[in-house]
Design brief:
single chain; mainly alpha; 22 helices; globular; TRAP transporter large permease protein
Length: 444
């Protein structure tokens, strides 16, 4: 069978399996096994098992469950609540200040958790009811949280950046720092759009709700409470800064830094928030184990899938066809961006990275694009997929937090922020230094 026909059949089979609800890891593994056996016979069963387990046996993958545990410890504690209250104290006076506070909280919480779903859930549980109580439209309340939650896969420490680094054999420390300025740039674009939208609508705020709060608590007490909340958050921020310093200073490997960070965040959550009971600790371990196993299964299955594509010469054919396109390199980058955007509509970021990064990297390098710059562009494309249908994980998380807000309202409120991300990609194309200046400055 020629590679083109084989590729079409594999793509159709994968789409069918996912359409009927098969988990991504099982869908990738099943279609890979069927393709290999059909092409080469039962002898491929041996290579299937070896490829599946050899890939996830790499020591570098230890960083993934450790960073996930670090995020779970933060997400399971009241850190998000304290962070939200502190930012509301400083930003709440602006037009749309509460929505801007939520985006700021999402930005900082992203650095603490490294997970978009965790960020979306932790801040959304507090932010959405509060915004609705103060008169914000449902679309604004849901959209700013859904968009802010996507920053979890860009701002370091990011699990998706670790996976990209391992898949492409690039420096994880440099990848982390490449995401810093673009991450805060996106947060700034989100805040600017929120400020403009709220200003055009005359600002938001429910005077009755605010008056009721003032009756319950004096301004002085409110300030004191928020400052105390900020003090409780600062140790977690110090842990993140310490991890980044250890990585960029060459003090520790990503796996070592992740292990220390997980221990410290778990210890801080227990000590600061008095989580001495077995139940909350058990919940942290359970959530960490579930997400880690899911990600590792996807990585292992995607490696088998990549092996199957390579064995059937599908990868080589696709890469050769793209490389043979006699087009400007920016047109090539536009084609790749559209491909990543569409892939992000249907697949989670981890699956897209492990399936496409090894294939796209040689093409990117041949077109003289920087692999670290491309990692940021790829990640922003995948962020858009988190707030766009049909999969749109953050949309469903928001809908589960506030089930009385229709999915349509959540989507409508999120779309302007998706356009902000597209603008962010354009800015990165015009000014690559946004992603490359800081890594070059700190790491040479």
């Amino acid at each position: 069978m020629d590679p083109v026909t084989a590729g079409i059949l594999v793509a159709i089979g994968l789409i069918v399996l996912m359409a009927i609800g098969t988990p991504i890891a099982f869908a990738l593994g099943a279609i890979s096994l069927i393709a290999l056996v059909a092409d080469r016979g039962l002898v491929e069963l041996t290579y299937f098992g070896e490829t599946f387990f050899d890939r996830i046996a790499e020591f570098g993958f230890v960083a993934i469950p450790m960073f996930i545990m670090m995020g779970a410890a933060v997400a399971s504690s009241p850190t998000g609540r304290d962070l939200y209250r502190s930012l509301d104290l400083w930003l709440g006076k602006l037009p749309g200040g509460l929505a801007i506070s939520n985006i700021g909280a999402c930005t900082i919480f992203s650095a603490l958790s490294g997970s978009s779903p965790a960020t979306c859930a932790a801040i959304g549980k507090m932010g959405i009811p509060e915004m609705r109580k103060r008169g914000y439209p449902d679309g604004v309340a849901a959209g700013c949280i859904a968009a802010g939650g996507t920053l979890g896969i860009l701002i370091p420490p990011s699990v998706t950046m670790i996976i990209y680094g391992i898949s492409t054999e690039t420096s994880i420390g440099r990848l982390f720092i490449a995401g810093v300025i673009p991450g805060f740039m996106l947060a700034g674009l989100f805040m600017i759009w929120t400020l403009i939208a709220c200003k055009l609508a005359g600002g938001y705020g429910n005077p009755m709700a605010i008056a009721t709060e003032k009756i319950k608590q004096t301004v002085r007490e409110n300030v004191d409470a928020n400052l105390k909340a900020l003090v409780r958050v600062l140790p977690f921020l110090a842990v993140v800064l310490g991890i980044l310093f250890a990585l960029y200073g060459g003090v520790a490997t990503p796996s070592e830094a992740a292990g220390v960070g997980a221990f410290l965040c778990l210890a801080l959550a227990i000590i600061i928030y008095r989580m001495w009971q077995v139940k909350p600790i058990k919940l942290i371990m359970r959530d960490s184990l579930r997400e880690s196993v899911m990600i590792m299964l996807i990585i292992a299955a995607a490696e088998v899938f990549a092996y199957a594509l390579s064995s059937l010469f599908i990868t080589q054919t696709v890469a050769g066809a793209i490389a043979d396109l006699e087009v400007n390199r920016w047109v090539l980058m536009g084609i790749i961006n559209v491909f990543l955007l569409v892939a992000g509509f249907f697949l989670p970021p981890v699956a897209v990275i492990v399936m496409t990064a090894p294939i796209l990297l040689p093409i990117i390098l041949s077109a003289n694009f920087d692999p670290y710059w491309f990692a940021v562009v790829l990640t922003i494309n995948l962020e858009i997929g988190l707030i766009t249908p049909p999969v749109g994980l953050n949309l469903f998380i928001i809908n589960s937090i506030a089930p009385d807000i229709s999915l349509r309202n959540v989507l409508t409120g999120s779309l302007p922020y998706a356009l902000c991300m597209v603008l962010g990609i354009l800015l990165l194309c015009l000014f690559p230094g946004l992603a490359l200046w800081l890594p070059d400055l700190l790491m040479g």
